[in-house]
Amino acid sequence: MLLYVERWLKAPIQVEDGRTEPRMTGTPQGGVVSPLLANLFLHYVFDRWMAKTHPHISFERYADDIICHCRTESEAAALLVQLKERFLACRLRLHPQKTKIVYCKDTHRTGAYPVVTFDFLGYTFQPRLAKWPKGEYGVSFLPAVSRSALKEIRKAVRLWALQGRSDKHLDDLARMLGPCIRGWINYYGHFYKSALYSTLRLIDDHLTRWAQRKFRRLRRRPKRARTWLAGVVRRTPWLFPHWRLLYANGRMLGAV
Q: Which tens digits make up the pLDDT trace of 47-65?
């Protein structure tokens, strides 16, 4: 196994013009083996080191994204210094912009601190108004889908180019796109589903333009096309996964 790892680390890189360049350290960006080797390396550089030196500090790590939970600012600042030293000793560096101390501000933690938000695994964690048990409301430190994740979803929807798929039936589009939409809802809708609403409505905007290209009677008539799509939603609310999320409880297509 060690021989294979060494070969991966020393394998030359082929550039766009066909030339190969030698490489003695690191793994190629985007290489299929890079996440595996990074996880193995960080298991010893970080996981085992934290368990030995800071067993009282809990953390989450996904690949090279890490969150450490400290009780005080001084404890967080001391840990940050030690992490820089530890990573430097292992020939690694902490990301200068992404590595920061964040104050998890909420109703019970009301102190002033310049940074009260961070992104992790496609979610933005920040103070948010929430409904507590017994019907009370307060501010909790909670996640919702991040702006960058919403941007990627909108980009994917545009790349579907639905207006150019007039050869497909609506059922065909639902079968093709349903798994992707369902995946977004299942992952990003676990917290604060409402943060997805405006982005998911863009799918219906593209479906409206698809209908205008598909049916001659709807061409250059966006209002009529939207009315047609609203009728389809009422008759078959299960067809697209986001319809049940957006238009349940009597909400209509286009309603806020």
A: 999 999 999 999 999 988 9
